[in-house]
Amino acid sequence: MEILLKKIVQVAGGKLSGDDSIKITGVNSLNDAESGEISFFSDRRYKDSLANTKASAVLISEINPDFKGSQVLVSDPALAYAKVAGLFASPVPKHNGISELSVIHDSVLIGKNVSVYPNVYIGAECSILDDCVLFPGVFLGDRVKIGKNTVIYPNVTILQDCLIGNNVIIHAGTVIGSDGFGFVRDGVTSVKVPQLGIVQIDDNVEIGANNCIDRAALGKTWIMSGVKTDNLVQIAHNVVIGENTLIVAQAGVSGSVHIGREVIIGGQVGISDHLQIGDRAMIGSQSGVAKSIGPGEIVSGCPTMPHRLWLKNSGLIMRLPQLNERLRNCEKYIEKLQKKLS
User: Fold this and answer.
1) Furthest-apart CA pair in the chain: how many Å?
2) Is 279 exposed, middle or buried (0-12, 13-18, 19+ CB in 10 A)?
């Protein structure tokens, strides 16, 4: 594939310093780019890579004399790169129509241009709208609804009655609609609480590989539009996640947590049940959230505290051995003074 740099400038929404007739054949990192490729520069730590790159053009926020090729000036090089990379991304591979090796109940409704690979199972009364792709090993329980242009990668399980919106991407190995972890103790035994609700995933959501999203005990577990989750994320029953929230790998959200919109949750965060996370809050990696967080708060640590306070505490932890030694010396000195005074 070859794309004129002039078109790339338009897609990136930038201005060009250099030759706009260059043919760009791909995107690459500064270190690995070859002639004909475009890269981006957004971090001054890579200034040496910028000076030495073989890329024919770069996406950059301001003209840099260290780079001799064409420079596409944009306000956010990383965002511009994401847009430009889309021009070179391979389309999702599609099986030609509906495979005879799939198992599809007679009551299923299937829209136009749907691609169903071999070894897909689709239960009774499901509906799959136009332009969806279901890869091998996908299991759809009875009455599952799938919106338009949704891609479900291999070995994804979506259990009965769950609702999936338009333009959703669900990566391999994810389970949606498994029972929430609900038990009541009867002496030494655990009595299962039936999980009677569903999972609803709205439009433009992307779910990473090997996520587990539990159905609600009653009502619904709700992932609102624009949410993106990384791999290995656990979302428990009756959780609500607001629009455009990001959740990084290995995070776990306990039951009935309500997460606001545009929240960022770092890797390996654990959130206790029945908490409220306000809009646009940010939670640092490996934090343990034991109480609700207000809108716009930035927290870290276990238990969580304001991020700047956590940074100070982290610095003190490194100094604890020296501080302990100084304290012991002070105690010995005070003890000697007391003996002299007595």
Assistant:
1) 97
2) middle
Per domain, the residue ranges of the chain are 3-88, 103-305, 314-342
Give the integer Cα–Cα distance in Å for 325 and 27. 55
- The three-class DSSP label of residue 330 is helix
Distance CA 139, CA 102 (A): 10
Residue 70, SS3 per DSSP: strand
This prediction has a pTM of: 0.90
Please list the helix, strand and coil fractions of the chain in percent, rounded to the nearest 5, in that order: 20, 30, 50
Record the tokens describing residue 341, joined without a space. Answer: 């005074």
Whether the ω angle into residue 306 lies within 30 degrees of 0, i.e. cis, is no
Long-range contacts of 91-99 (CB under 8 A, 24+ apart): 92/133, 92/151, 94/133, 95/133
The tokens describing 7, both together, are 């078109």
Rounded distance between C-alpha atoms, residue 285 and residue 332, angstroms? 41
C-beta of residue 143 within 8 angstroms of C-beta of residue 124: yes
Report the candidate in 133, 132, 137 with the shortest Cα–Cα distance to residue 121.
Answer: 137
Rg of the chain (C-alpha set) = 27
CATH 3.40.50.1100 fits 3-88, yes or no: no
Other C-beta atoms closer than 10 Å to the C-beta of 245 total 24
pLDDT tens across 76-123, in order? 999 999 999 999 999 999 999 999 999 999 999 999 999 999 999 999
User: How far, in Å, are 74, 183, 208 from residue 77 at the CA level?
Assistant: 6, 50, 25
pLDDT at 27: 96
CATH topology of domain 103-305: UDP N-Acetylglucosamine Acyltransferase; domain 1 (2.160.10)
Active site residue ranges: 237
